[in-house]
From TrEMBL:
Domain HhH-GPD: 35-186
CDD domains in UniProt: ENDO3c, NUDIX_DNA_Glycosylase_C-MutY
Annotated organism of origin: Gaetbulibacter aestuarii
Cofactor: record remark: Binds 1 [4Fe-4S] cluster.
Name listed for the protein in its UniProt record: Adenine DNA glycosylase
Similarity annotation: Belongs to the Nth/MutY family.
Residue runs in coiled coils: none
Catalyzed reactions per annotation: Hydrolyzes free adenine bases from 7,8-dihydro-8-oxoguanine:adenine mismatched double-stranded DNA, leaving an apurinic site
Entry cofactors: [4Fe-4S] cluster
Amino acid sequence: MSFNKILIRWYSNNKRHLPWRETTDPYKIWLSEIILQQTQVKQGLPYYEAFIKSFPSVFDLAKADENTVLKLWQGLGYYSRARNLHSAAKYVVNELNGVFPSNYKDLLKLKGVGDYTASAIASICFNENTAVVDGNVYRVLSRYFGISTPINTTKGVKEFKTLAQRVMDTRQPADYNQAIMEFGAIQCTPKNPDCSVCPFNNSCVALQKNVINELPVKLKAAKPKKKYFNFLVFISEDGKILLEKRVGKGIWQNLYQFPLIETPKKITLKRFESLVKEHPKLKNQSFELRLYNEEPIIHKLSHQHLHTTFYIVSVETLDNGIPKEKINAYPVPILIGNFIETFNFN
């Protein structure tokens, strides 16, 4: 039996029952694929269900305001996905009359949709013969065929896409693509896969050569930079707080945060107090500064590690402050969200 037939048979017996597998609606498939980028199914499922409940159709998502979308996305990270999701929904509604593109080439025109997502939607919804290649597929193909070309190189991307296209089942592209992704997710796992029950244990090159843990090969990324964030949690006597909307490009674009002072390294409370005095909100009024966390909270992102300290700044009044009981209405990065959950604003 061929590689693709074995995969599809395995899938029919082992697949997880997930809501987006019960439909070929391109809106729901697109939504699930965007959510599941950089996110495991168990984490992404509640978000998918929340989005479908709040925005049953692409029209509902398109007419929502961005704050609502970002708030619902809060905790998933990589917030550009949410912004692109919202932008693409508006494009589909305003430019395409609410009808999703029905082929790989046109799907690529949607903001935030790349080769993998376009392939998934095209094959699952429109039965187009275009193979998906994601982290799971890289792992399955590299191990089964014994390929050591680094997956994060131009050569590797091209080689694996060509191979994926060659071995797919062109009569069942939807089932095949979902099968190979599911196989990588629950059988051919990154660490300690149970090869004793694998249907390919007699033909997998990596198993035969005992290099399971060495494949796929990925070149090491640059060492993450250290940044030192100092957030000012202003609280006025009448229960107002201060949030600022992040503008400009960046992973937290259009999210809200407490006023931020970034320093080149960890700073003493005494030294920091002298910086705080220069803040525009503290002109002509006294304040009390209190360090909230003695040790910085290290928030790890793919390209940088944020060494984060929160300071409580008690003041008499706050211009443009918001009532503290409304703080949960604002979309914030998970780093800020975790602080809000643990700090008592009552």
